[in-house]
Design brief:
Number of helices: 2
Largest sheet: 9 strands, mixed
Structural class: mainly beta
Strand order of the largest sheet: 5-13-12-11-10-9-8-7-6
Strand content: 25-35%
Order of helices and strands: EEEEEHHEEEEEEEEEEEE
Helix content: under 10%
Distance between the termini: 10 Å
């Protein structure tokens, strides 16, 4: 029987203990420590990716490689592939360059963007203040596509993250509408989708320039245009062929590749699902990462005696339950 361990977590729950601009990250590979749902063997319950970013590991078990073809790829009643998930991974987090399969230095940033990335500090990351992480970012926790059907068929797809964005959700319009001419740039932009065979193609414009692509601080401008091509390649995997265009920050368009892993279905229900997450002010990190924390046992709060006093954040951080 599963035991729920409630931990206080800050915003994204992805925290950095070493500067993510460290050298020697290497290729993306398919190994634990990327924030893709692989369980850690660390008894402290933490994992550290190749860029030095340490995460509290909540235990989001995913389908192992040996089982990804153990079931057929499911389809919706209208015949389209079921992409709902939930999935873990499938986007950037610690370093979009590495996470997207590029080698160090291959992301074609303009010089001003490189300089800005070099000046940014982990403590200033917008996502850790309950602000939207946007595209193509994910975190080490589950997310899913949710389909909305009306009489005329599939009209909207919503992208929902277990630990994300103070309850915000992304909308992908599937009803054939164009991007609007009069649009106020925002965190998620304006997304339209269509099917090309069994691949969901999402075209998005109208982003603001406030979010970071990763914990490293990779920037962009309001000229950002993204194209996602989501394909469920097996029962247990989904792939995202991602095109990044931004003439304001990149010297040329670039193609990235991400892989998401299916959250292991619950034995009692036969399906996986997202757990509740609430992003609120002044919660702190769980003790699993040996960070400043509030640890909750029944109705008590145990504070780290070494915690420094600090001014409350105007934005906040997060609180959720984990799978063990």
């Amino acid at each position: 029987m599963k035991k729920l361990l409630v931990v206080a977590v800050a915003g994204v729950i992805a925290i950095t203990l070493a500067h993510v601009q460290a050298q020697g990250r290497g290729g993306r590979g398919d190994a634990p420590g990327r924030g893709d749902g692989r369980e850690t063997t660390n008894p402290q319950g933490t994992l550290t990716d190749q860029g030095g970013v340490r995460y509290i590991n909540p235990g989001s078990p995913t389908i192992p490689d040996a089982e990804i073809n153990s079931h057929p790829i499911p389809r919706m009643p209208d015949g389209h592939v079921d992409l709902t998930g939930p999935w873990v991974g499938g986007g950037s987090n610690g370093d979009i360059e590495r996470d997207g399969g590029l080698k160090p230095g291959e992301l074609p940033l303009q010089q001003w963007a490189k300089d800005l990335r070099g000046k940014r500090l982990e403590k200033d990351e917008p996502y850790t203040a309950c602000l939207p992480m946007s595209v193509p970012r994910v975190n080490p926790y589950p997310w899913k596509f949710a389909y909305e059907y009306e009489e005329k068929g599939l009209t909207h797809i919503y992208v929902l993250h277990e630990t994300g964005d103070a309850g915000a959700h992304r909308v992908v319009y599937m009803d054939g509408r164009p991007h609007p001419r009069n649009w106020v740039n925002n965190w998620w932009g304006h997304s339209t989708g269509k099917w090309e065979g069994d691949t969901l193609v999402i075209d998005t414009v109208g982003y603001n320039d406030k979010f970071w692509f990763d914990s490293r601080g990779t920037p962009h401008t309001e000229q950002l245009h993204t194209i996602e091509r989501w394909t469920r390649t097996s029962w247990g995997r989904i792939e995202n062929d991602f095109t990044l265009e931004d003439p304001g920050a990149l010297t040329k368009p670039v193609k990235l590749h991400f892989v998401g892993r299916l959250l292991r279905p619950d034995k009692a229900t036969g399906v996986g699902d997202l757990m509740e997450f609430i992003c609120l002010e002044d919660n702190e990190y769980g003790r699993a990462a040996q960070m400043v924390h509030i640890w909750r046992t029944s109705n008590e709060k145990v504070r780290n005696p070494n915690r420094r006093a600090r001014r409350p954040s105007p934005h906040g951080s997060g609180f959720c339950a984990s799978r063990l």
